[in-house]
Amino acid sequence: MEQLYSLKSAAKKLDVSKRTIQRLIKQRPDIEKYKVGSGVRIKESDLKKLVVKQVNLENIEI
């Protein structure tokens, strides 16, 4: 079974705010959110997608 991260733990892992994680997820409709109790979880593979997308965007020369 794949690791699931709470928004708080995902934010800590990436050294960003929880709000940043929420914003990134909202921008990416292909990222699935899983409701567990009163919290939201995302899969590790989806967290990696967020990172790759951000790195690719930041490396584009304008």
Structure, described:
This protein has 62 residues and is of the alpha+beta class. Helices cover 53% and strands 18% of the residues. The protein has helices at 7-14, 18-27, 44-58; strands at 4-6, 34-36, 39-43. The chain has a three-stranded antiparallel sheet with strand order 1-3-2. A hairpin with a 2-residue loop joins strand 2 (34-36) and strand 3 (39-43). The longest helix has 15 residues, at 44-58. It is globular, with a radius of gyration of 12 Å. The model has no long low-confidence stretch (mean pLDDT 86).
Summary?
Helices cover 53% and strands 18% of the residues. By secondary structure, the chain is of the alpha+beta class. It has one domain (4-58): Multidrug-efflux Transporter Regulator, Chain: A, Domain 2.
Number of separate strands: 3
Strand content: 15-25%
N-end to C-end Cα span: 41 Å
Q: Tell me the major beta sheet.
A: 3 strands, antiparallel
Tell me the domain tally. 1
